[in-house]
Amino acid sequence: MMDKDFSPAPLDDQDLEALFAAAQRDTPELDPKFLAQLQAQAAAALPQQPAAVPQRRRPGIFGRLSQVVAQIGGWPAGAGLAMAGAAGVVIGVSPPETVLDITSAYFQTESLSELSGIGLEAEFTWEDS
After folding, report:
1. Can you say whether the dihedral through the CA atoms of 26, 31, 37, 43 is positive or negative?
2. Residue 37, phi then psi, degrees to nearest 5
3. In sequence order, which residues have a C-beta less than 8 Å from that of residue 95 and are 6 or more positions away?
4. Rounded to a whole number, what is the distance in angstroms from the first to the last CA of the chain?
5. Distance (Å, whole) CA 25 – CA 32
6. pLDDT tens digits for 29-53?
7. pLDDT band at 101 (very low <50, low <70, confident <90, very high)
8. Backbone Cα Rg of the chain
């Protein structure tokens, strides 16, 4: 059995063209009964449609806010964050003397107005164009 050569004979371009032409001419017709059975098997293999799932409503503004607050730790953490923000605004608008002393010593200024660059002698003019 080992002495047989099973390699195909070398084909040139003319032989290949003849084989391709024969394959194009002789297209086999499939049995309609086989095609019907194949389509039935393919339809049976398709996944079944799941039961209708009700559409979830998109959360409104309060729903989104609730999701954000839940991400940062719940309502107690959200209330603490709001209180810290409010304290920051109050301290920023009316800073205590200690904050002014530390700021003026660090930036080497006499007052907060010098630090901001706006002195009492600054004039604000409105120009209409």
Report:
1. positive
2. -65, -40
3. 103, 112
4. 104
5. 20
6. 888 999 999 999 999 888 887 777 7
7. confident
8. 42
How far is C-alpha 47 from the chain's CA centre?
Answer: 29
Band (pLDDT 50/70/90 cuts) for residue 97 is confident
Has this prediction a pTM greater than 0.70?
A: no
Residues 103/115, Cβ–Cβ less than 8 Å: yes
The DSSP annotation for the chain comes to -TT---SPPP--HHHHHHHHHHHHH-PPPPPHHHHHHHHHHHHHHSPPPPPPPPPPPPP-HHHHHHHHHHHTTSHHHHHHHHHHHHHHHHHHHS--HHHHHHHHHHHT-SSHHHHHT--TT--------
Both tokens assigned to 12 = 């040139």
**Could you give the count of Cα atoms lying within 13 Å of 105 in the half-sphere of its Cβ?**
6
